[in-house]
Every structure is written in C-alpha cells, then in structure tokens.
Automatic annotation (TrEMBL):
This is rRNA cytosine-C5-methyltransferase. It comes from Streptomonospora alba. The keyword Zinc does not apply. GO terms for molecular function: RNA binding; RNA methyltransferase activity. Belongs to the class I-like SAM-binding methyltransferase superfamily. RsmB/NOP family. Residues 1-31, 196-215 are annotated as: Disordered. Residues 200-209 have a biased composition (Gly residues). It comes from the Bacteria.
Length: 497
C-alpha cells in the first residue's frame, strides 16, 4: 500500500525545481511528522505501519538518521501503546478516551521519546509540542506540553509500578500493562506456553511460584518482552537461484538453523543485489523451516506433485519451488486473491526447471482431482499473533473474535488439503500464530472427523532446532521469538493413509 493519494506531501523536488503554488513546504521535523502521519493512518484508516512507513519515507525523501528516528518513534509508540496509554491516563484529569483523536498520537510519540529513548527530556518535550502546534494548533499544543511535562517526571519503571495492577493479585493485568499487550492476548499466549491464565500451575511447565524463585508467567513475560524488541532481518537464498554464501559475501551472517537463511544486521535488504534480482528475499527463519520440514518427510512412491494451497504472497512457494525443481517435482502455488497470486508468480519466477506455477484458485473448492498431490502445505490465514514483533499495530487490531471467525476457513482448508493428497502423501498445516484455537484445535477437530490421516511427530523433521516440540504428546512444532529468535510459527505434519 503506498497511500500516495492521501499524502499531504508530494515527492521531493528535483534540484533547482520550484514548488508550485499548491506544493506544501517540506515539514520542519520530517521524522516526527512522518511518525505522526503513520500513527494517524493506522488509527483512522487501519493502515499497516510496516507497509506505509517505508513508502512514506521514500516519497518524502527522508533518509539516514531522520528515517531511523521516524522508524523508532512509529514502531515504539505502536508497540508500547498499552503502557503509554495507562501512563497518559494517569497524567490527565479526564479519561484518555475523551482526548481528541488528533492529539492522542502526539502524546504517544512524546511518551515514547521521554520513557524509552535517550533523547534528552527537554528536547523530547519541545520537539513534540512543536509538532502538536503544527498539526493540531496552539491551544492543544499547550495541553500536550502540560501532559508531557507530567509524563517526564518519572522513569518508565516508576510509572509502571504506579499504573500496572499488582502482579500477585492480577498477573495477567500486570503483564498486560507492563509489556503492552491486550489482556486476551496475554491469556492466549500464556495458555499456548502451558502457563495457566487462571494464575495457578498448569501441570508440567506450569506457572506457579511455589519454589519462591520463578515468578508466575515467567516464560510468558519473556515472550511479551520479545514482542517489543526490533526483530532482526532474516533473508532466504532461494534454492537453485542463490547460495547462502552469496548473502554472506554481501555482508549477512549465517543463520542459526536454516540452511537457506542469513541474518542482515544492518542496511536496507531491498538494496542487496540478490534481493533486487529476486534470487533472495526477506523471510523469517521459522517460515523457511516449516516449509523445509514438509520436504523432509519420506513418501513411498511418486514424489512429483506438490501443492501450496495458500500461497500469497509467495514466500514459502519460492522456497518450495526451488526444492521441487532440484527433485524434478512440480509445485502448484494456489492463491484465492488475484492480486496476491500475481505476487506469487513474481516470487516463483525462474524457479529451477520452471518447477513452480502460480494460479488463482480457491483451495477449499479445488479445481484439481482428489488425491492429486504427494505433498501439500496449508499456510492458513490466521490472526498473525506469531508475528507481533513485525506488525506493531496488530495486537491492538485483533480480537478474540478474529480467531473464532477464521476457524471455519482454517478447517475447510485443512480438510480440502487432506482430500487433495494421495494415500501415503503428507500435509503440513502451518499458522503464524501459536493460539491453540487456530493451531492444534483445528488439527484435532479435523482429524477427529476422519479415519484416513495421522499426525506425525513434526519435531523429528527439524532436529537441528531445540525446544520446538509442542502439544500433549510433543507431536506438533511451535517456534517462539524468545526461544528461537523467530516468529511463533506452528507446524503439524499429517500423513494421509
Ligand atoms: C498466511 S498467508 C500465506 C503466506 C504464504 N504461504 C507465504 O509464505 O508467503 C494465507 C494466504 O491464503 C490465502 N487464502 C485465503 N483463503 C484461501 C483459499 N480459500 N484458497 C486459496 N488461498 C486462500 C490468503 O489470501 C493469503 O494470501
């Protein structure tokens, strides 16, 4: 999404070119202004910060330190919004809900600078009040000044000690405010980690503090804290098109687990030659590994026809297409949305032996015959609770109903994937979420309806990765940001009988 149409700014002028009568002057403090405009777009029209911010920075010609500051302020204010709102609420006589929606983003940006950056407090307040005067006028600038001066009187730790519920009395409420997540997400993540949301120990790995050493929800807390850290950029070298060594030669470092992965510690990945040539791409390491696991399961007989049933935008298809080409297999990459199918076509372009083909198709109503495929991956649409590090506003946008609403589609896609697989073939069911309602809940429900499928121990196919076995018998795989430095991807491998 480039959001060009709604931008108040035009592209930067070329050297010597005069601005027209209607061209607004360049903003005085471009970094803070860009951060404010993104927060407004996220709040007012459900924009995605990770898509809008880079295009806005390009469009406005914001580079270097200003771009870094805009990114830090935007992502920081969105990630920490829950904590900052609790603090701002304590600094305002009336309820925060009654504060003008144009002013609220200014206050959040100011709170982030004061509480979580090394910007000197006087500079943080004066620059933010200046921004407020320009975007919402002098009167509300004075209000912002008064509120931010109160915020700046205490550190983040001192403020959270005041505004967060007591940890012993309300551990979920405490973590929710301190680590800035909605309550229901804290509960869902704690449950997925085996730490009982009701506050008591939950069997093995439970959250009780009986030993006097481990506070309740200790692992949940590590996960929530990881969601507020900036994730590293992970690249994938598309098999048959680039080698990890090419990425290392361009300054990346070897990935911990994926044989196709590399970490980029600095610089813009879009500027890398291999990425520009589409021989490499940005892809989380767990996304690489769940696709790889599908290719590692032994299948007797034919291994020539692979299906990606939910392919858009094509990250896993590109990896699978490369691996299919090496084995002389063919990958059909199906995607229901035509625009996203176009992205898939670009991602799989020039797969070795032209092994991959993108099609627009509804995988719940397949146009192919039952039992057509030897290997199928269903990377189902989900809440994305596993990618909260990379999508800073997602935690405020999702609701418990989002997960419930997706379940019928997730079940339909898995049923159809099993129908599309031949006996002896294998299905990978994947989500970028650890929420049990869209992971094992879906797999267990679908498999309980039919006698022609069995769950395999997925961790056996990823034995280079520690601590990933999940589920009652350890049959599933669950990656975690705080354990593996990846997104929280879930994987079930199911053999068709
Ligand atoms: C989680 S994303 C897949 C990500 C992709 N596998 C990758 O690695 O880049 C889920 C995709 O499934 C698509 N989708 C949803 N319902 C579908 C259906 N009935 N048939 C095919 N694709 C569907 C969505 O449009 C979305 O692009």
């Amino acid at each position: 999404m480039s959001d060009r149409s709604s931008s108040p700014y035009r592209s930067p002028r070329k050297n010597g070119e005069k601005g027209g009568k209607n061209t607004p002057p360049a903003p005085k403090d471009p970094a803070r202004r860009a951060a404010y405009d993104v927060l407004r777009a996220v709040q007012d029209r459900d924009a995605y910060a990770n898509l809008l911010l880079p295009s806005m920075l390009r469009e406005r010609g914001i580079h270097g330190r200003d771009a870094a500051l805009a990114t830090e302020l935007t992502y920081g204010a969105l990630r920490r919004q829950g904590t900052y709102d609790a603090i701002l609420d304590a600094c305002i006589d009336r309820s925060l809900d009654s504060v003008d929606s144009e002013v609220l983003p200014v206050l959040r940006l100011g709170a982030h600078q004061l509480l979580s950056t090394s910007i000197p407090p006087h500079a943080a307040v004066s620059a933010t009040v200046d921004l407020a005067r320009r975007v919402v006028g002098h009167h509300r600038g004075r209000f912002a000044n008064a509120v931010l001066r109160k915020v700046g009187r205490r550190s983040l730790e001192d403020w959270t000690a005041i505004v967060a519920p007591d940890r012993a009395a309300d551990p979920v409420g405490h973590l929710s405010v301190v680590h800035s997540h909605p309550r229901w997400i804290v509960e869902a993540l704690a449950a997925a980690l085996g730490e009982d949301p009701a506050g008591g120990p939950a069997g093995a790995g439970g959250s009780g503090a009986e030993d006097g050493q481990t506070p309740p929800f200790a692992e949940t807390e590590r996960l929530l804290a990881a969601h507020n850290e900036r994730p590293r950029v992970t690249l994938v070298a598309k098999p048959g098109r680039a080698a990890v060594e090419d990425l290392l030669a361009s300054g990346a470092t070897e990935a911990r687990f994926s044989p196709y992965g590399a970490y980029l510690t600095e610089g813009d990945p879009a500027l890398l030659r291999e990425v520009r040539q589409r021989r490499a791409a940005v892809q989380d390491e767990a996304s690489q590994l769940v696709a790889l696991a599908l290719t590692r399961v032994g299948v007797d007989g034919s291994d020539a026809r692979w299906l990606d049933a939910c392919a858009g935008p094509g990250g896993k298809s590109a990896l699978l297409g490369g691996l299919a080409g090496k084995r002389d297999a063919r990958l059909l990459a199906a995607e229901v949305q035509p625009a996203r199918a176009g992205l898939v076509a670009g991602a799989v372009e020039r797969s070795p032996r032209d092994a991959a083909r993108a099609v627009v198709a509804d995988s719940t109503l397949p146009a192919w015959r039952a039992g057509s495929f030897d290997r199928v991956i269903v990377d189902a649409p989900c809440t994305g609770l596993g990618a909260l590090r990379r999508r800073p506003e997602a935690r405020w946008r999702r609701t418990p109903e989002t997960a419930e609403g997706l379940a019928p589609l997730q079940r339909g896609l898995l049923r159809s994937a099993l129908d599309s697989t031949r006996p002896g073939g294998v299905v990978a069911y994947v989500t970028c979420s650890p929420h049990s309602g869209e992971t094992r809940g879906i797999v267990e429900e679908v498999l309980s309806e039919r006698g022609d499928a069995e769950v395999l121990r997925a961790a056996d196919y990823l034995d280079e990765v520690p601590d990933i076995a999940a589920g009652p018998g350890g049959e599933y795989v669950q990656f975690w940001p705080h354990r593996h430095g990846t997104d929280a991807m879930f994987l079930a491998l199911v053999r068709k009988r």
